Amino acid sequence: MPPDSDLESPNGRILVVCTGNICRSPYIERLLAHELAGTGITVESAGTGALVDAPIDPESVSRLRAAGADADGFAARQVTPEIVARADLVIGATREHLSAVVPLHPRALRYAFALHDLGDLLSVVTESDIFAAPGDNRVAKVAAAAITKRGIVNPRLPEESGIVDPFRRDPRVFDQMVQEIAASLPVVVTALRG
Questions:
Q1: What dotted CATH number matches 13-186?
Q2: pTM of the model
Q3: Catalytic positions, written as ranges
Q4: For the chain, which residues make up each domain, given as ranges?
Q5: Angstrom distance (rounded) from CA 60 to CA 53
Q6: The pLDDT value given to residue 5
């Protein structure tokens, strides 16, 4: 169960969102938490149509374990306004997920991104941009710095902007999911770690 206290997340809180909260978002959540271990950043996930209380899909579990990340103790949950409100950064598997999340807490428009869009924006953000950005913690500053690049970085075409949904599909689609996430997650991790 993710902590509710900001004292347990001194450098910020990230929310990762997909549909069922059993394939893409828990994979990103657990891999991101693994990569950000020791930073004081909390990573959690939820779904727009969550299979509430379900564990991570076994195909995602095997890929998490191969990456050295922890897949244990997970239960899918539905995204709520409260979960979105306490995040400093929302990462959607697709832009469509953000369309479902932002109406729950409209201020999230300022800190919600599809993963590929966030990676593209952060690829041109410098450490001095992050340092100068407004925010109470590292995660909030990274989100604010990314926003400033929205008019500078050309957005991807819609068909190139999302992570494939592997739910109930061939294991090769899970491999595709992993490859697509790996194309954008490293730049996000670098910005968040500082």
A1: 3.40.50.2300
A2: 0.95
A3: 18, 24
A4: 13-186
A5: 16
A6: 45
